[in-house]
Design brief:
Shape of chain B: globular
Order of helices and strands of chain A: EEEEEEEEEEE
Largest sheet of chain B: 7 strands, mixed
Radius of gyration of chain B: 14 Å
Strand content of chain B: over 45%
Largest interface: A-B, 22 and 20 residues
Helix content of chain A: under 10%
Strand content of chain A: over 45%
Number of strands of chain A: 11
Oligomer: heterodimer
Number of helices of chain A: 0
């Protein structure tokens, strides 16, 4: 089966950098996704990693190490609007059915 | 990103009635769509995988006769909550999986979510 671990909650200061880690165990790997979810809203897609390395997209970057079953989402120049839950997700082995982590609630304060 | 719409965005109904929620993929044809449920401050829970032209695949513990899913076209999946009860009150979210060759900024195999439907059963 799938097992995804990420911290429950993190806090950071506006303008700072924060790294949200995600570790996973899955039989077969078809890619890892990061989503952002604001309270009361549906998730929005942030990034997709299928190969090892860093994918940079503006203020957000995502890193993957398949051998370590590890990913992180890096948020730079934090803004108050970045306060949200960040969900790590992997596809079930050999399929495109997603499994989501419990999400990391990020609180950005002034 | 791709646009997936859901309708209605919120609904209040009486116990015992049925509620239908529509999910439309507006930017690509989706052979696979997913239905989730999310209770306050909890994680997304996958209810079922909706496959165009075939029966939905339900997750363990999800009653297929209570949550009817129909994926009649490549752009529309519907979830009907039958005989709704207060414990069915939740945030229901659909997503559509982007197929290969969807084009533009759409990334293959990525799920794009609808805005969700908040169901309250009195």
């Amino acid at each position: 089966g799938q097992n995804i671990d990420q911290p429950t909650e993190m806090t950071a200061t506006e303008g700072a950098i924060v790294q949200i880690n995600c570790t996973y165990q899955t039989s077969g790997f078809n890619g890892l996704f990061w989503y952002q979810q604001h309270a009361g809203e549906a998730p929005t897609f942030l990034s997709y990693n299928v190969l090892d390395g860093l994918e940079e997209k503006g203020r957000f970057s995502s890193f993957l190490s398949r051998s370590k079953g590890y990913s992180y989402l890096l948020l730079k120049e934090l803004q108050m609007k970045d306060s949200a839950s960040y969900l790590c997700a992997v596809h079930r082995g050999g399929s495109y059915i997603p499994t989501f982590g419990r999400g990391t609630s990020l609180i950005v304060h002034p | 990103g791709a646009v997936v719409s859901q309708h209605p965005s919120w609904v209040i109904c009486k116990s015992g009635t049925s509620v239908k929620i529509e999910c439309r993929s507006l930017d690509f044809q989706a052979t696979t769509m997913f239905w989730y449920r999310q209770f306050p401050k909890q994680s997304l829970m996958l209810m079922a995988t909706s496959n165009e032209g075939s029966k939905a695949t339900y997750e363990q513990g999800v009653e297929k006769d209570k949550f009817l899913i129909n994926h009649a076209s490549l752009t529309l999946s519907t979830l009907t909550v039958t005989s709704a009860h207060p414990e069915d009150s939740s945030f229901y979210i659909c997503s559509a999986r982007a197929p290969p060759g969807a084009g533009g900024p759409i990334i293959t195999d990525t799920q794009y979510f609808g805005p969700g439907t908040r169901l309250t059963v009195l």
